[in-house]
Amino acid sequence: MCNKSVNAIILAAGVGERAAPLTYEIPKGLLKIYGVPMIERQIEQLISSGITNITVVVGYMKECFDYLIDKYGVELVYNPEYARKNNLASLYHVRDRLNNTYLLMSDNYITENIFSVNETNSWFSCPYYPDKTDEWVVSEKSDDGVIREISIGGRGAYAIQGPAYFTSEFSACFKVLLEKHYARTESAGCYWEYVLKQELANLPPMYIKDTTDVVYEFEDLESLRQFDNSYFTETNNFILHTIHEISIYFVT
């Protein structure tokens, strides 16, 4: 198959409240895993796969991402609604860039390169959860892995978590539905996946891509520690250091 034009959009505008106080000083996507910021690892994986047209949607502490322009040649787009709306709005502000597109979250860690310029189908990264989870999960799928229904929470299911790939056909349909939902007041607090969940029947097929043990999401400091042991001894976070020093002072 001939290579086609493929671009990537990385959503990085969020505050990352659940990872506080680490994110009081730095956006979540710039937290390091094994010494490398999560967003940089994803950008490098994309570039090594021949995908250099990369847009990063920023908002919270947006200046922290400026260095990525010179280092990787990415384009930054500011989402002025980041503080009052969820990432559905971030994607809305770059909807015209949806084509043959990878859509990524800046705060995922991907152990191996899963990107290619030769994708044939739309897919969503889906790690398997054998036990109970509160993640959004695929509650119904076809025999060949097409996502038919998405529910919140489940057991023994694939969760929709991490990158997704949109074909140009999928993007054309999705943009119309994204605009419809963005215009609704009740969608302000929604993730972009809400549109997918509500509109699966009105979209071209999206397949499960099994990314078990490949794509990781970190909600807080404890989950970071479980993956990268260095967070047990050093967070490089001034606020945590200050709390530690104060606690020692009062104990002694």
Using the alpha-carbon principal axes, give the shape.
Answer: globular
Radius of gyration, CA atoms, in whole angstroms:
19 Å
Tell me which oligomeric state these chains represent: single chain
Largest sheet: 7 strands, mixed
By DSSP, the count of extended strands is 15
Please report the first level of CATH classification, the CATH class. Answer: Alpha Beta
SSE string = EEEHEHEHEEEEEEEEHHEEHHH
Which band does the percent of strand residues land in?
25-35%
Written overview of the protein:
The longest helix is centred in the last third of the chain and has 15 residues, at 168-182. A 7-stranded mixed sheet has the order 5-4-1-6-13-8-14. Strands 2-3 form a two-stranded antiparallel sheet. It has a two-stranded antiparallel sheet with strand order 7-15. It has 8 helices and 15 strands. It has helices at 38-48, 67-72, 87-92, 168-182, 193-199, 221-227, 230-233, 238-251, and strands at 7-12, 32-33, 36-37, 53-58, 75-78, 101-105, 108-110, 122-126, 128-129, 133-141, 147-154, 157-158, 164-166, 206-210, 215-217. It has one domain: Alpha-Beta Complex (Spore Coat Polysaccharide Biosynthesis Protein SpsA, Chain A), CATH 3.90.550. The chain is α/β, with parallel strands linked by helices and 252 residues long. The protein starts with 6 loop residues before the first strand and ends with a helix.
